[in-house]
């Protein structure tokens, strides 16, 4: 199961699910029906059937947790170094403006650690480590709140209606 933050199950949750599968394995050995096991463990019958098939092929050992699907390619120490590089700013890495993009971060990772990431891989790496899309800390001095309010009242309803 995946979550919007891009992470997976916590270690505690993996342990809990493994215990469920092992409880089911004990009941498989007793010959209980999948529907009864599913009801008692509060899981779907299909999950119990899948576990039973794995148990038939490999015994209780086949129901043990496999661990995370993939290990991060950057260690925590390397990610800390990446954060230090990002803190220097894009200008320190040769870009003219002060905008970090996923493509630029990908380039920094490649130069610094000799690893290739996809753009989505960089996004997942950052989200997994608590980064998010940045929003400006303050509003632009040039912003005209009256013009924005007028646009929201007059222009936005017209744009919204035309789609319907």
Task: Report the helical percentage.
Answer: 55-70%
**C-alpha termini separation:** 36 Å
Mean pLDDT: 85
Tell me the strand percentage band: under 5%
Low-confidence stretches: 1-6
In total, how many beta strands? 0
Question: How many strands, what sense, and barrel or not for the largest sheet?
Answer: none
Output the radius of gyration.
Answer: 25 Å
Structural class of the secondary structure composition?
A: mainly alpha
The gross shape turns out to be flat
Give the topology string: H per helix, E per strand: HHHHHHH
Number of helices: 7
What does this structure look like?
This protein is mainly alpha-helical. The protein is 58% helix and 0% strand. The chain has helices at residues 11-30, 34-41, 45-58, 76-88, 102-113, 119-128, 145-162. Mean pLDDT is 85; it is low at 1-6.
Considering the chains and any ligands shown, give keywords for the structure.
164 residues; mainly alpha; 7 helices; flat; disordered N terminus
Topology (SSEs and partners):
Elements lengths: L10 H20 L3 H8 L3 H14 L17 H13 L13 H12 L5 H10 L16 H18 L2
